[in-house]
Structures are given as C-alpha cells and as structure tokens.
Prior knowledge:
alpha/beta, about 45% helix, about 240 residues, binds NADP nicotinamide-adenine-dinucleotide phosphate
Amino acid sequence: MKHILITGASTGIGAETACLLAEGNRIFVHYCASESSAGKVADNVESRGGQAHLVQADLSTEAGCRKLIEAVSAQTDKLDVLVNNAGAMLERKNVREITWDLMARTFAVNTFSIMAVTSMCIPLLDKGDDPNIINLTSVAIRHGAPTATVYGAAKAAIDSFTRGIAKELAPAIRVNALAPGVILTPFHDQVTSAEQLETFRKSNPLQKNGDPIHIAKAVRFIIENDFMNGETIDINGGIFMR
Ligand SMILES: NC(=O)c1ccc[n+]([C@@H]2O[C@H](COP(=O)([O-])OP(=O)(O)OC[C@H]3O[C@@H](n4cnc5c(N)ncnc54)[C@H](OP(=O)(O)O)[C@@H]3O)[C@@H](O)[C@H]2O)c1
C-alpha cells in the first residue's frame, strides 16, 4: 500500500490522479477552497478500494504549506509519492500590464508552494518505498505563451528545481515533472474563453485538447518506473515538439 499525497486533488488533474491511483493505496486528497468537490473525490477513492484522507490548506503561504505537512504527518509517518499538482494561472495579462502583485501571487501558488512542500515532505519521503516526487509544470515553459508569461516563468522555475533536486535527493528519492498542454479542467474557467480553447484545439496536430486522464496516466507511469529521474515529460498532443 503506497501512501500518496496529491496537492490540488479537489478538481481536474489532481482529482483524476487520486481516483486512478486509489486502488489499494492511501491517498491524501489535498484541497484549498473546493471542499465539496474534494469530498466527492475522497468518496470515489474509497469506492475504488483506497483509503482517503482529506487535508485542507492554502499553499500560497508558508503557514499553509506547514499546515498541510502537519496534517499529513499526524496520520502517517511516511510518504511514497508526493504529487505537487496544485497551481493556478490567476490572470492573463500582457507583459505591459503585469503588476508586482500578480507576479508575487503567481509565484507563491505555483513555485514557492512546490519548493516549500517538497522540502517539508523530505523526512516523510525518506521513510517511503521507492519514494518519488512528481511536479506539474506546463507547456508554457516550452514555447512562450502570450498573456501567460508570468505563469510560464513560475512553472519554468519548477522545471529547473526538478532537475536540481533530482540530483540532490538521489539515490534516495526520484524527482520528475510533467508538462501538460491544454487540458480541459476548471483551471481555464476564469482565464480562458471558449473561443481561446477552440483556437488551442485547432492549432493542435491532434485537433483536440487533453483530458485529466492523459496526465493521470503519466503520473502512474512515473511511479511505476524506478529508472526515471530528473525528466520532464511533455504531454500536449504535439502542440510543442522537441
Ligand atoms: N489545465 C491545463 O490546461 C493545465 C496545463 C498545464 C499545466 N497545468 C497545471 O496542472 C495542475 C493542475 O491543474 P488543473 O488543470 O487540474 O486545474 P484545476 O482543476 O483548477 O485544479 C487546481 C487545483 O489546485 C488547487 N489550488 C489552487 N490554488 C491553490 C492554493 N492557493 N492553495 C492550494 N491549492 C490550490 C485547487 O484547489 P481548490 O479548488 O480546492 O481551491 C485545485 O485542487 C496545475 O499546477 C496547473 O498549473 C494545467
């Protein structure tokens, strides 16, 4: 039985990942504001033969990150997998309009949160079985995303962080990242119009946007592959190719 902490597991990619990994495992379903959605995810985990533990915390603050780890530590003395999934674009802005406040909030929720939670989880991961960390970045780190430049930069920092700590923590703990393309989740509700989603779809070689399951399956693949370390996997339908 693996002990798995998934941040931002109330909706979208995190929720799908929690359900996919549920069977036979203990899943810590973290959420911030979406309590009822998180409760449904926890029910789903249990119905699939897993054990679910709900944990609430705002990860855009150091105190919130500490609250998360204290709550998890109260229920387990080890973690096998940490999925650093929580994140948000917050606002789309042209570079001419960006503010210090937007930069600070974007980096707090997408960058500092992952760095802090990772650091705080290491004592738990040290006691895990093939412990590994999976960080969610974005295709925005690859090809320049107009109006999402601050968000892209915040995720790019995590791409670099991933490789650095993959070396620092080896051989004890593996660290990898996933860089999704456009995935249809509540992430886009406040920041991407239906027209923009359609433009993204048409510009994709596969002529479609992704679903959370496309990313959840990649999380499972990384967990199962104990020779993967320091890699960022692009899953975007070919909208960016290396
Ligand atoms: N969807 C895409 O097209 C796409 C593309 C590339 C990368 N990504 C990345 O994939 C990850 C998952 O995104 P998603 O598409 O599944 O989005 P989503 O459905 O909006 O889920 C985001 C999750 O992050 C949590 N969260 C947001 N702000 C938080 C905060 N301050 N503290 C703690 N948790 C917070 C949310 O919790 P509550 O709802 O409970 O507040 C939610 O569980 C994110 O890191 C995102 O940047 C998404």
